[in-house]
């Protein structure tokens, strides 16, 4: 089942939601953004807990704006699990089935299937209060899946778990979602989690959609400075376009000359920002003609798998995350380089040269 939000708006005294996006059939779409940007509110609008003021919510081609939550057939997994502590695992998973009037035989078959799906066979008679956090979250997921929802919504489902367990469970979530081919909307603050799980990422800012794309595009080809900053560390170089030859843009700035592979059409003389991720950089033996930034070392930290380097340039600080151990000392002058394929242009980012 596909899910589409078309110009969905909800106004509050000091905040407004205004979002449009589509999760295709079987796709896992993640909502990302800072706290308070409207991710959970958007999820509740999809579920039917909040009714929008304008726009359309469409599930499998059908408008569901006026439908109450139970008619939308949407499964929801909460951050705090929300399991019934007075029920065992079986009863928790079977709760929605009994509400729908399933008979005993079919209910038992469905619960057994789901316990196998979440890799907790034989756990039916256990009390949920005796389970670990990871096991409780699996049961919460099974309960949401039990009635056969058309859309699955997950609101920070792994945030209460420790880092190692969270990593293990995100693989389980992905496995189950892929196995069921279930259209899913996932909310998380964890960037690594979002990148590992998502077919599509919707970056939100103050109730609005900032960018939609796959993990690679959102990270390597951000459309705005906000997206560039939100999804990771980045270096920014103010520059002016000299010329563009096909998808190769040549630029100049006070730092030097630069070449960037960029598919969009740019106007000669346009002021743009060149974006360079720290891990895309290399240490140069000597400054070369293009794509080289020279400065004085301010900080050099060996982190085990990489070395974090900060250099002071004409226009501020430039950072690099270099593989392995790199020897450098404070006060030393070094040059950092990057290839035209490993940088990007923020064409809509205005500034004064």
Q: How many strand segments?
A: 20
Elements, N to C (H/E): EEEHEEHEHHHEHEHEEHHEEEEEEEEEE
CATH level 1 class label of the largest domain: Alpha Beta
For CATH, the homologous superfamily of the largest domain is named as P-loop containing nucleotide triphosphate hydrolases
What about the largest sheet? 6 strands, mixed
CATH topology of the largest domain: Rossmann fold
Strand order of the largest sheet: 6-7-8-3-9-10
Description:
The protein is built from 9 helices and 20 strands. It is α+β, with helices and mostly antiparallel strands. The protein folds into 2 domains: 3-227, P-loop containing nucleotide triphosphate hydrolases (Rossmann fold); 233-346, Nucleic acid-binding proteins (OB fold (Dihydrolipoamide Acetyltransferase, E2P)). The strands form 4 sheets. Strands 6-7-8-3-9-10 form a 6-stranded mixed sheet, sandwiched between helices. Strand 11 and strand 12 form a beta hairpin. Helix 3 (89-99) packs across helix 4 and helix 3 (89-99) runs parallel beside helix 5. The model has no long low-confidence stretch (mean pLDDT 93).
Fill in the keyword field for this structure:
single chain; 353 residues; alpha+beta; Rossmann fold; OB fold (Dihydrolipoamide Acetyltransferase, E2P); 2 domains; six-stranded mixed sheet; five-stranded antiparallel sheet; 9 helices; 20 strands; 36% strand
How would you sum up this structure in a few lines?
The chain has helices spanning 39-47, 69-72, 89-99, 104-117, 133-145, 163-180, 191-197, 215-220, 225-230, and strands at residues 3-12, 15-23, 28-32, 54-59, 62-63, 74-77, 151-155, 183-187, 200-205, 208-213, 235-245, 248-253, 256-261, 271-276, 282-284, 292-302, 306-313, 316-323, 333-337, 343-346. By secondary structure, it is an alpha+beta fold.
